[in-house]
Amino acid sequence: MPPLAREVALPHTPRLLRVGPRLFLTTLGAFLLLGLPVAGLVSQGVSDGIHRSFAERSLRESRLVAALPPVVSALSGNAAERANLNALMNRYRDQLGADYVVVTDRDARRLTHPNPAQVGQRMQGGDFTAFLRGRSVTETVQGTLGRSVRSKVPIVDGSGRVLGLASVGFLLPRLRDVFLDVLRAGLPWYLLALGLALALALGVARRVKTEMLGLEPEQIAGGLRQYRAVLNTLEEGVLVARAGQVFVMNPQARALLGTPDAALPLPWPPGLPLPVPGAGPVTAEVAGRPVLLAAQEAGEGAVVVTLRDLARVRALADELTQSQRYAELLRAQTHEFTNRLHTLAGLLHLGETREALALIHAQSARHEAHLQAVGALRHVRLSALLLGKFDRAAERGVTLTLDPLSALPGTLPPGVLDGLELAAGNLIENALEAASGTPDAEVRVLIATDPEGLMLEVRDTGSGVPPALADTLTVRGVSSRGAGRGVGLALVSDRAQALGAALSHDRVRADGRDWTRFTLDVPLPEAEE
């Protein structure tokens, strides 16, 4: 089974339509289709050549007979020579290998013939006037022995007077036998050529199939259609490069690189870095759009490069981070709620109903206070996020306070609310972690608008940002809490840049305490006007 068959369902190819049988039958058909007419033409040429050869031989030998002294003497009136002429011509016929040698007088009456009964009879067929004028003729006629090729040569005496004619003939069956002998001699060579052509066809078929990885043409086409469907439906751009040339480029890569109609292969796009295979993704800018590139070895010097729209990647990362934050908040709320239920259950078992009611009222009042605090934010998702953070803070033993001046307008430009949620979730979570474990741990949050735009301010009583990380804190992977962290602030910074916002941090002193403050200033179109 070809390796490709383990990856793609390949179409079935009937046995006679496979490369080997197809090429074999095509070669055989072509050889027969072209070889038989050629063989017919060659055979006709051979047949005509044999006929012409025997005609020339007949003329030449007829002239020899006409010039023999016994023949001239017999026709000049020598009775003895005339009596022995038939026997002499029959012996001469055997020596020449002819079918007959006929000598006639001027009236075309035979003086010699292989059949003695024909002697004295008039010669049949053909021209009997040309020899009387001293001309020789060669013809194919029907005689008493059958159809034959013969020549008629005049017999003349010393004074040039025509005494009769001499004719040496070869029957057509003899010519046909010679022709068949020639064909029989050439047939093995014809069959040998056919065998060599078929063997070559089989060799070429095996070679072609090896080059096609053991697949049939229909299977290659089917596999190519499957792979093309996969490449064309991927969200990422895909390039296959070899020796600085791009040989494969799916539509997504063409759209990212701006080469919709360019024919492959293409030189590697100038200014686009070629990542080191297996070394991790790199970022680049293509047509003003940030992209993420990653490369993998594909064998035989080929490299597969994937291109992802970095903005989309960051958006997905933001969504994932938000989902993780919400999951963490839900876990904290569940944990807090479970603890309260356990406390209430214990109080009820002890019969302390007054204490249980007091706890319920306190908890209700706390939640009511939280609801009133977030009510001015006027956006459900942001309010839900803050409510979850209150429970998260309680779990960590940190006091979370939302500044009473916090308020937002009812509508915000597209993308601002998502960016605000991302920033608030990450900055508050970082502040809770920083303040956790410190005496009188506290985090204060302010979300409000002013004439310059929207402001998010998060303060915590933690130890602050280490001076060594002050300039690189928003770089992905940089964190004061060790390896595997440093993603949240990088996402907030990227989203802030996309919104034209500014993210900053500093240390301030207020209420007799030192605070670490992170501030996000987002310009709003309404404020700019």
Task: Give a verbal description of the structure.
The protein has 529 residues and is α+β, with helices and mostly antiparallel strands. It has helices spanning 19-67, 69-75, 79-96, 172-211, 217-233, 251-257, 310-349, 353-375, 380-396, 416-435, 488-499, 525-528, and strands at 100-105, 137-143, 146-156, 162-171, 237-242, 245-249, 266-267, 282-286, 289-299, 302-309, 399-402, 442-450, 453-460, 502-510, 513-522. 48% of the residues lie in helices and 21% in strands. The chain has a 6-stranded antiparallel sheet with strand order 7-6-5-10-9-8. The longest helix is centred in the first third of the chain and has 49 residues, at 19-67. The chain starts with 18 loop residues before the first helix and ends with a helix.
Could you name the key traits of this structure?
Sig_transdc_His_kin_SpoOB; Heat Shock Protein 90; 529 residues; five-stranded mixed beta sheet; alpha+beta; rod-shaped; six-stranded antiparallel beta sheet; 12 helices; Beta-Lactamase; single chain
Specify the overall morphology: rod-shaped
Give the name of the CATH superfamily of the domain at 19-215. Answer: PAS domain
Return the CATH class of the domain at 19-215. Answer: Alpha Beta
What summary fits the major beta sheet? Answer: 6 strands, antiparallel
Separation of the first and last Cα atoms? 71 Å
Strand pairing plus helix content: what structural class? alpha+beta
Quickly give the CATH architecture of the domain at 19-215: 2-Layer Sandwich
CATH topology of the domain at 19-215: Beta-Lactamase
> Can you count the helices?
12
Which spans of ≥5 residues are poorly predicted at pLDDT below 50? Answer: none
Give the fraction of residues assigned to helices: 40-55%
Overall mean pLDDT stands at 79
For the biggest β-sheet, the strand order reads 7-6-5-10-9-8
Number of strands: 15
Return the string of H and E elements: HHHEEEEHHEEHEEEEHHHEHEEHEEH
Roughly what fraction of the amino acids lie in strands?
A: 15-25%
GO molecular function, one term: phosphorelay sensor kinase activity
Domain Histidine kinase: 420-526
Catalytic activity: ATP + protein L-histidine = ADP + protein N-phospho-L-histidine
Pfam families: HATPase_c, sCache_3_2
